[in-house]
Amino acid sequence: MKLLDFTTTKLGNKIELIGDEQSEKSVLIIGVFHGDEPQGKYLIEEYIKKRGANKSNLLFIPCLNPDGLQNNTRTNANGVDLNRNFPTLNWGEDTSGAGDNSSDYYGGSSAASEIETQFLIDTIKKYSPSLIITLHSPYKVVNYDGPAEEIAQKISKIINYPVEASIGYPTPGSFGTYCGVERQIPTITLELDEKIPVEDLIQPVFDIFDML
């Protein structure tokens, strides 16, 4: 696997896309949408080190929000929740009650206003993944958007989390709505258990990646 593309964030951190040359049925796997959910970066980087050479169909963004990771915040350096910043039909419907960027769920000054969001949109346009998986925490569910129920059930059997079609609250401008609902790309939001050591997640997450 090699570095295929990258961009630089407001704080000068790099967002990297890692994989091999384009496959007909590539799967895009993304870690750290939210900077206070670091498990995805560790798990992806460990997988690349140990198994990456054998999986030419996988594309990885280990850390979409390195500024948030650096600051231990859900949002990026501009105070934007990247998972509310996508140009969906319902973008900007503020469900926090705050109405401004004081909320951890602030969707940005405009849809796709953020460097991180633009990089991910460009990646999807260029590589046309057949499946997208994002690694979050802490809810211990396999959430899906678009035509992804079948793969969600397979992932559920491996990690023993329930499958949920809804996360249970409104998510205007979400990545799942942008890709899964509006573009019909099968999209999985894998909510990992944050209460156990991340090392305990290696085996089930590796098994999921191996299956793809």
Question: Layout of helices and strands, plus pairs?
Answer:
Elements: E1 2-8, E2 14-19, E3 27-31, H1 39-51, E4 58-61, H2 66-71, H3 115-127, E5 131-136, E6 141-145, H4 149-159, E7 163-164, H5 175-183, E8 187-191, H6 202-211
Parallel strand pairs: 3-4, 3-5, 5-8, 6-7
Antiparallel strand pairs: 1-2, 6-8
Helix pairs in contact: 1-6, 4-6
Write a structural description.
This protein has helices at residues 39-51, 66-71, 115-127, 149-159, 175-183, 202-211; strands spanning 2-8, 14-19, 27-31, 58-61, 131-136, 141-145, 163-164, 187-191. The protein is of the alpha/beta class. The strands form two sheets. It has a six-stranded mixed sheet. Strands 1-2 form a two-stranded antiparallel sheet. The longest helix has 13 residues, at 39-51. The chain is globular, with a radius of gyration of 16 Å. It starts with a strand and ends with a helix. The mean pLDDT is 92.
Concise synopsis of the structure shown:
It is built from six helices and eight strands. The protein has 212 residues and is an alpha/beta fold. The chain has one domain: Zn peptidases (Aminopeptidase, 3-Layer(aba) Sandwich).
> What's the architecture in CATH terms?
3-Layer(aba) Sandwich
Percent helix, as a range, is 25-40%
Tally of individual domains: 1
Portion in beta strands: 15-25%
Structural class: alpha/beta
Euclidean distance between termini CA atoms: 16 Å
Order of SSEs: EEEHEHHEEHEHEH
Described by the principal axes of the CA atoms, the overall outline is globular
Main β-sheet, spatial strand arrangement: 4-3-5-8-6-7
For the biggest sheet, the summary is: 6 strands, mixed
Give the class-level CATH name. Alpha Beta
By CATH, the superfamily comes out as: Zn peptidases
* CATH topology (level 3) name: Aminopeptidase
Number of helices: 6
- Total strands: the figure is 8
- Mean pLDDT across the residues is 92
Unreliable spans are: none
What Rg, in angstroms, do the CA atoms define? Answer: 16 Å
